[in-house]
Amino acid sequence: MSDAIDRIVDRPAELLLITGPPGIGKTLLVNQFRDKLLEKRGYFVSGKCEQYKRNTPFSSLIQAFNWLITRLLTESPASLGAWRSKLETALTVNGQVMVDVLPGLELIIGKQPLVKELGPTETQNRFHFVLERFVEVFTQKENPLVIFLDDIQWIDQATLNLLEMIITTPGNKHILMIGAYRDNEVDLHHPLIQALNRLDKKSGAIQSILLKPLEERHMAGIIANTLKCTEEEANPLAKLCLKKTEGNPFYFKQFLTSLYHTKIISFDSMTNRWTWNMKEIDTQTTTEKFQLARLNLRAGIKAKKSVAYSDALMFFRTAKELLPAGSWTDNYSLAFDVFYSLIESSLLSGDQASMDFFIESASQHVGDVLDKVKISHLRILSCYSVNNPAEAVKFSFETLKMLGIVYPADVTPEDIQFALLNIEALLKEKNFDDLIALPNMEDREKIETLRIISSLLHGIYFVAPQYFPLLAATSVELSVKYGNAPHSIPGYAVYGLVLCAMANDYEKGFRFGMLATKLVEKTGYREFTSQTTVIFYNLIAHWKQHIITGIPFLKEAHQIGLESGDIPYAVDCIHGYCYYSFFAGKPLGFLCSELDYNMSKLTGLHQENSLHYILLQIYHQVFENFISKEEEQDLLFGENFNERQISADDLQTRGMTALFVFYTFKSFLGLVFEKYEHTLEYINKGNENLAGATSTYHIPFFKFTETIALLVLIKDKNDPEYSKSHRCFQVRSGCLIC
User: Fold this and answer.
1) Does residue 342 lie within any of the structural domains?
2) Domain boundary among 168, 194, 210
3) Are residues 559 and 629 in the same domain?
4) Are β-strands 175-181 and 43-48 bridged in parallel, bridged antiparallel, or unpaired?
5) Sign of the C-alpha dihedral, residues 119, 125, 130, 135?
6) Per-residue pLDDT at 550
7) 428 with 517, same domain?
8) Smallest Cα–Cα separation from 668: which of 590, 676, 161?
9) Alpha helical stretches, state H, 204-273
10) Is residue 518 part of a domain?
11) Are residues 538 and 550 in the same domain?
């Protein structure tokens, strides 16, 4: 590393890789050479690649350059003026492009003119060009630059491409890129390794340093220096430390610290020496390893609460490595908690492969049914995270079967009627105040059953809505018989939905929806706000209240959902907010701005493949069609949605809801802009997919559109569509129009 820093002054750009497992000291090694760089009047900046930010372009580089901006702002006025001049020359009229991602840069180069709006591809190309020019400013002989990126096993593709450009572009000098990564987490097929192989063939400018574990002699030296003894005295303890930590510096430090905290290593003031008992250490090592694992588990949980998922995973992985052989037998609860935390953090980080691996590892040992259910619940959530509701539904039913809840493969009207009559009888002697006052549920098995049903509700609406009444009935029955649990809340709301959608009992359905919202307020379970608000305002309340009533509640619930981590229902809330705003008559310009803002937010949440994002794209294009003056205003063709690229067959993979919304608005646009050629076809397609919009406000809107369209089409008896529309209207209205 010292040689690489020496070469930075005269040699072309170079990439130095530091590899080794977690805790081996990669970051510490790099930081020790900062002073050497400062001697050459160079700049050292660093950024950390985050596992959960792999879909955010340049996140680690932006972090590094923010530090660089901060450093420049501490320099003398003369130096700052020189940098201002260089930056202005390099960025020219595109300074605002960099200010948008590095706001502090404006303090150096001043207020910048707005840049011209371009198409998506051109905007991306411009950003890459300007970023390259920005980097070139700091690659000078008098001020060489070192960019250190940590954990590049999680590097995003955009940063990887820029790194490749910096190293391979002829003439690039005075810059050293340093990347640290965990070699035990990548293989030959990993994008990082493939890119590095390509880069090495092109430039040959890659150097590597592999950090190896400490040897016994190294540990003996550290112990002797720390405990002020001879290496000969330290050797037995060093040998034991090597056995227990495999030479990992991080584990070694934690192991010694734990021996000190448990007073197995202590300072004897009488002899003025550090003392320890090897026999006691040897007999208690397994216990010490359990304690270390528990400490790392706690640290990981704390990091997870701070949304530092990569750090949390590191602690959980450390805890797993510290678990002694036989832990599943000797300390089952700790082993389960560690693996559960690994699975959960992998899910939160979007690391599907790691999550599947840990589930497979844990499944070989987990025997308790409720523990199996807890892991299955995470698997269900992972299906939703990759927008696979069908798999989520499948796993949910399998999990409920573990809990003794089995539903028929094919739901019949008789099944639904029996379930609803059973609940009606159960509730006969109870009013709504009685339900609110039910005691807390204590049966763990019933609590987990409600949790799985609650998770199932989101997918079942789109995949198999015929199961809704059965699920609602089970949820209400368990709550009435065993007491209320947190997941009773959405069960009451869904029962209200069933009463509205299937029994046409809007009054009672509305009251059950209100019951769910009151339970959220009473219990303080804010994490159920989004789900309850979606069910109540999107599917129930509009039958009794003006839709404008729900708009502020949906917007507020969206934010609460983000804060509580309930991303699927937070997305559902903002979807409801946007389409209710349209139906409520909000200005089209306002609606387009709201959609731009919210769709950008959803992209940041990696929800651009979700059903509701697709629906928002359709709405956005509909609104743009009303604003534009194009001739083909009945076609959903533009930047937001392009029906020539996204066909009905493509939408079919998203389920009936996407198709229903698509055909509803195609019918509406054809009606408004008097493009009747395919209107009847669209109406028929909408009716075929009507179940995808059960109990939503889309249905009365569609039926209104259908009625007006049919009346228009039968107006002219000479129209070739007359006979078809005439028959349709006769059937659907029960009237005979001549």
Assistant:
1) no
2) 210
3) yes
4) unpaired
5) positive
6) 94
7) yes
8) 676
9) 216-227, 231-245, 249-261
10) yes
11) no
Q: Encoding tokens for residue 146?
A: 């070192």
Structure tokens at 410: 């094919």
Q: Are residues 570 and 718 in the same domain?
A: no
* Statement to judge: residues 512 and 597 lie in one domain: no
Dihedrals φ, ψ of 311, to 5°? -65, -40
Whether residue 493 has pLDDT greater than 80: yes
The residue segments making up the domain with residue 727 are 647-738
- On whether residue 302 sits in a domain, the answer given is no
Q: Is pLDDT of 731 > 60?
A: no
Find the CATH number of the domain harbouring 82: 3.40.50.300
Q: How far apart are CA 11 and CA 16, in angstroms?
A: 13
Distance separating alpha carbons of residues 61 and 70, to the nearest angstrom: 14
The number of beta carbons lying within 10 Å of the beta carbon of residue 629 is 5
453 CB burial (10 A radius; 0-12, 13-18, 19+):
buried
Q: Which tokens belong to 444? A: 């763990």
Beta bridge partners of 16: 178, 207
Tokens 């697709």 -> residue = 614
Which tens digits make up the pLDDT trace of 398-436? 999 999 999 999 999 999 999 999 999 999 888 989 999
Q: Which residue has the tokens 């997941």?
A: 487
The token pair at 31 is 């930081």
Q: What are phi and psi of 182, to 5 degrees?
A: -85, 110
Measured distance CA(668)–CA(706) in Å, rounded: 8
Q: At what angle do helices 588-604 and 567-583 cross, to 10 degrees?
A: 170
Residues 617 and 669 in one domain: no
Whole-angstrom distance, CA of residue 662 vs CA of residue 672: 15
Residue 335 lies in a domain: no
Q: Which residues contact 460 (CB under 8 A, 6 or more apart)?
A: 393, 396, 467, 468, 471
**Which H or E run contains 268?**
strand 265-268
- pLDDT, tens digit, for every residue of 683-725? 999 999 988 888 899 999 999 999 998 888 776 555 555 555 5
User: 147 phi and psi, to 5 degrees?
Assistant: -110, 115
**Residue at token pair 């003119």:** 113
Distance between CA atoms of residues 232 and 221, nearest Å? 9
80 near 73, Cβ under 8 Å? yes
Is there a single domain that holds both residue 519 and residue 594? no
Alpha helix locations (H) across 584-673? Answer: 588-604, 611-627, 648-652, 656-672
530 and 560 Cβ atoms separated by less than 8 Å: yes
Distant-in-sequence, close-in-space partners of 244: CB < 8 Å, separation ≥ 6: 251, 255, 285, 288, 289
Q: In 3-state terms, what secondary structure has residue 54? A: coil
Q: Do 402 and 438 fall within a single domain? A: yes
Cα–Cα distance for residue pair 147/176, rounded to 1 Å: 6
Note the pLDDT of residue 306: 61
CA angle (274, 278, 281) in 5-degree steps: 100
* Identity of the residue numbered 375: I
Inter-residue contact 509 to 540 (CB < 8 Å): yes
Pick the last residue of a domain from 520, 542, 564.
542
Give me the number of domains the chain comprises: 5
Q: Which residues contact 587 (CB under 8 A, 6 or more apart)?
A: none
